[in-house]
Amino acid sequence: MEENKIAVGLDIGTTKIVAMMGRRNEYGKLEIIGSGNAKSIGVKRGVVTNITQTIQSIQQAIDEAEAVSGHKITEVSVGIAGQHIRSLHHSDYITRENPESVIDEDDIENLTSQVHKLGMMPGEEIIHVIPQDYKVDSEPNIREPVGMYGGRLEANFHVVVGQVASIRNIGRCITSAGLGLSNITLEPLASADAVLSEEEKEAGVALIDIGGGTTDLAIFKDGIIRHTAVIPFGGNVVTEDVKEGCSIIEKQAELLKIKFGSAWPAENKDSEIVSIPGLRGRDPKEITLKNLSKIIHARITEIIEQVFQEIKKYGHDTKHGKLIAGIVLTGGGAQIKHLKQLVEYITGMDTRIGYPNEHLAGDSDEQLSSPIYATSVGLLMSGLSRLEQEQKLLDKKSEEEYTTDDDTETVNKTAKKRKGIFERWTEKLKDFLENAE
Description:
Order of helices and strands: EEEEEHEEHEEEHEHHEEEHHEEHEHEHHH
Distance between the termini: 40 Å
CATH architecture of the domain at 235-299: 2-Layer Sandwich
Shape: globular
Low-confidence stretches: none
Number of strands: 18
Structural class: alpha+beta
């Protein structure tokens, strides 16, 4: 039996950079064979602000993962997020030349390509075009139009847009770190793959990924992504507030938040006090846990309310938009005590914490099933899926070795069609980076 293919997910976050290397075991679960962590210094709110420092952090995380696994890393599957990501809805249509023939993949391709030509604001580029539903002639709400007859094919699209410069900077960091780019995924989609079940995506669910610099939102309904948004606040602003409010240094504020923080002040009694060592010869500081929780509660409430605005914008209270599975919280910020209760209180929606352990092999390191690693696990899954797709195409091509030229052309066409928007976009970015040397 051939050795299972190995992929690497690289999560370039605001707080940390994680390289996670793994493969699928015989049961289809993820076997993590190495992972590396580095403090992220050159990234602010999901956007690279210092390329040199980011390259160093990437290399540090990669070196650590290579040392643990004993494998050399050449290519990575990377995520993009950051405050520059926005999404919009767009409808478009094509009139088919021959209504007597059935709609095929080429028609869908033509319609999607048309959306890619939409005019964007300066410096922005369309990253992702996701069809929501189709309309053939006057028949609406069609999930899969291939094989139907019709003269006019129309669709509603969810379009994700990002700043070209920010995305190219990430690409530049990866190539400068001596790595190849296997594919690019939107980070909220990667986290969703890691922590959501297919049933939840079908029933309707909002995934809230609270990172260090940003909070990402992805809403699914009927198995399709319906809405994405990036809120430019995360766990770091909570730490900043604790630092200011308690007049302590950042390192102490972070520890205090993680160890004693709560999003629900009522849980703490006035008498609960924590003592913080003073700086060089100064007296220790005494901080009441109730005050600490009040500071955390105020900022977390603000973040969740902004996310809830986006959920309302999507239309969760309409009959068709109802999110039956409620909310799933993940990311490092999801570990704050009593956050689930606060989110349920603000939104009135059922909430659970999302752990990426469902896809991990049973003997995986317990640490890796923390919500902190949701994006990394999702990016690794995305990298493995791409390798599996490529293998399928290769197998299909080798099956067709003995066919006529016409058949070979068909195989090539199929291969081209199967390339998702993201794959083609990745190739475009790769070309840009090669030409920019």
